[in-house]
Amino acid sequence: MSKLGLPDTITACLFDLDGVITRTAVVHAAAWKEMFDAFLRDRDGAGFRPFSQDDYDRYVDGLPRADGVRAFLAARGVELPEGTPDDPPAAGTVCGLGNRKNELLLARIRKGGVEAYEGSLRYLHAVRAAGLRTAVVSSSTNCRDILRAVHAEDLFDVRIDGEVARRRALPGKPRPDTFLAAAADLGVTAGRSAVFEDALAGMDAGRSGGFGYVVGVDRVGQADALRAHGADTVVEDLAELGAPA
Question: Which domains does the chain have, with CATH numbers?
Fold first, then answer.
């Protein structure tokens, strides 16, 4: 193993954004809850059952926005028209609900700002100093703005985010396609790439894509689940893998 906590065969690192590099997973979860609770309260009235952290972890975390809406609604036995990506946030469609969530997310980001995990930034700098290539792989369509907000855009050679995935018609996590695209853009094979993820869907993507190493980042006490879904190792902070203090 190298001083970075990775096999010596690894030449590229593919990082998820939310929950791995930045703390935006918390504001994402809050925006999802605000949107779904309002929708469910209007729909179900006295039978309203709120959106929970478990719902977020099981159905939404790490998935493209529309996929998350669709998965959670299916779990509640709710069917809505698909709509189109341009649907207004008030539309009663899958895309409309997703756009409402994004509107709430952006409002929260503007109000409270975005923070990066300092250990992750130190690890990124160490990875770059060691000559490894880097990519950020996120289902977020706000990825570039978030990276700029934490002054981390220049730490990545490649960005595969929600906008890029839509243009290239890449299916999102738990499919491995976005990570595979990042490796291809970096000019490396999956087997020589390491995936860094905090979501179970990301673990599934890392396992099914044949990547050389999969690092689970445990921010919420789900280390066992991360291992069960394919993590080769689990850390609470990337600095544990090896980064200067």
Answer: 12-23+115-241 (3.40.50.1000), 26-112 (1.10.150)
